[in-house]
Design a protein that fits this description.
Elements (H helix, E strand, L loop, with lengths): L2 E4 L1 H9 L4 H10 L1 E6 L7 E8 L2 E10 L4 E8 L17
Length: about 90
């Protein structure tokens, strides 16, 4: 199992949004990549849409493959005003 490492920003946002580590793990385990940026540095980045018991969740991560860890940058409930139905595609301004 890949180790999860949480950035301070993610922990603060999770606390403010009533999201716990179990929610994040479940969302990552059943989620799908909806945005992928393989050329980002220092690690490839992606945005995952997953479901947890509380609903749809977006998890922004970076994958440190050499260190066998997923770095959680932020976690949030997708805003329907900013995302198309299904939360896979951003709405155009």
């Amino acid at each position: 199992m890949t180790r999860l490492r949480f950035r301070v920003h993610a922990v603060i946002q999770m606390e403010e949004r009533d999201i716990d580590v179990a929610d994040v793990r479940i969302a990552l385990d059943n989620g799908e990549d909806i945005e992928v940026r393989p050329d980002e540095h220092p690690y490839p980045a992606r945005l995952v849409l997953g479901m947890c018991p509380k609903g749809a969740l977006h998890v922004a991560v970076r994958d440190n493959l050499a260190g066998d860890e997923t770095i959680i940058e932020t976690v949030y409930w997708p805003n329907p005003l900013l995302w198309e139905p299904g939360y896979r595609v951003r709405r155009r301004p």
